[in-house]
Every structure is written in structure tokens, then in C-alpha cells.
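Blinded run. Sample ID left blank on purpose so nobody reads anything into the name before looking at the predicted structure. Input follows.
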Amino acid sequence: MDPVTRGDPESPLLWTSKSTYHLSEALQHQGHQISQRSVYNLLRESGYTLQANRKRDEGASHPDRNEQFEHIYQKVQGFLATRQPVISVDAKKKENLGNFKNAGTEYHRAGKAPQVRVYDFLDKGRGKAIPYGVYDLAKDQGWVSVGISHDTAECAVATIRAWWRQLGKPLYKQATDLYLTADGGGSNGSRVRLWKTELQRLANALHLTIHVSHFPPGTSKWNKIEHRMFSFISKNWRGRPLLDSVTVVNLIGNTKTKTGLTITARLDPKRYEKGRRVSDQELRRVNLQRDPSHGEWNYSILPQTPRNTEVINAC
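Blinded prediction complete.
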């Protein structure tokens, strides 16, 4: 079910692109004796529903969309089976800080709802909160760095590095590899040169081979971090004005679920520079190996020898 599960990250309702007939046939091929009606009943019990058309068209679908979803699913299962860390990374929506309206409702005494500003113009004195997150699929744990400057590849990799030092390394002491899934665009995009050079520095520092898979264009909401972490953060702070970065960090850090999700949040006060350029020469120094299947989306970055490490760290 996992590769073909769909749904809005903000909603508990899920649906699948496979019909109950196709699912029952697939299960029968695996040796299970099950009817179409039984599959339908199991889906209902698991929270899946029939969904009508909605205005949520993601645009034209990439012809290899499903193939890439299956590829990611198989890679995830393989790394989990060998107890190597698997993480989903992404940046959450930037939030204006201040006494602004935040969608959602909370219980208050009649007529005592908090008063917020009418207009959502940026308060330059307070700025924005820029959360970047890491979600550990095996441990159901999250890490969020709340930035104050810009969402850049350097910021993204700094968050992964902080997660590893605080949470990842103690949990995966025998790890030799790290597998991460990311969107195809943004600071961690498949075409972002700085993303690859920063990952090379990270691989060198951690002595890990970093394997990366990007989701196809127009499918960012299927990254696990959206459904399993960011959605619960949004629900936790609904109806609460995000007055300052401390409020944001506290609300994120206090997000939990009955199924065991825990999140560690911290403020990242560093100011990241926009527009950093990576030359062709720097990019060629990255020890990158592309997968046979869509190498632009699936690749590995291997730690370099000490001599090569000195070269790229000097860039």
C-alpha cells in the first residue's frame, strides 16, 4: 500500500491509486486468499476512503512518477532491513513572526478569543521563522532547526548534521550509510549544486556514504516528513499566534502523537548567505555516483580520502 498511498498531509483521510480489485489480485498473487470486499473493509478500517475529484491537481504527472515511487519504497525497505538510518528531509512553510492570525481554533471563554492584527504585513523587527526538518522513519523521531535568515542548501545540511550529532549517532552507532529522501526542488533540490557540495562535506565529516533520492516534480507532499511530522506541527499550533522564534521552537518541541512521535526543536541563529555559487570545478570534485535508474534523482555521495577532503574543504 505504501508506494500508492495518497492524501492531504493536513487530513487524516487517505486514499490509494489502486482499486480494491487490483489490490485483491496483488494479494492473491502473494498467496493470500482474500476477496475484493474484504480488501474494501480493511481499507475502511485503516482510514482509507473513496475520494471525489477535488481542486488539488498537481499538474502534469512525470511519466516515471510511479517508477520512482517504487524505487524509493524498495530502497527504504532495504536500508531499514539492514538497520541503516533512513530520514526524510524538507523545509516547512516560512512563518511571519508577530501577533498575526494563525489558521485554526482553540477553546476560549466566550468573547475572550485572542485579538490579532488585521493585516499580515511582515514585522521587520521580528522577521520570519524558517523551520527545516529531519524525520527518522524507523524511530518516529523528528528534529527541526528554526532558522532566522534564509532557506539555503547550507542551512538544510547544517540541520542534518545537527540531527546526526544529537539523535542519529547515538541511535545508529554501527551505521556506515545514510539514506535520505527529499523534494526535487527548493534548497535540497536535485539540481542544486550547493546541496551536493555541502553533502560531500557532511559525508567526509561523518564518514558515511550518503544516498539520496528525490521525489519527482509535483509530488513534494508525498515525502514522509509531510504526513508524519509537519502535519502534526501544524495541528499543534493552530489558532496560536506565532509571536516570536522562541514560541515557534517551543510549539514544535511540544508536538507529540499517541503513536509515539517526538520532536526536538532548536533555534538556528546563524545567518545563511543567499546566492552562493558553486563552480564546475567544485562540482566535479564531489565524489558522486549516480544510480542506473534516474541518476539525476538517485545518487550516492561517498566520503573522500583525506587528500581529496582537504581540496574540497579549501573551496
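Unblinding after everyone has recorded impressions. The first strand starts at residue 5 and ends at 6.
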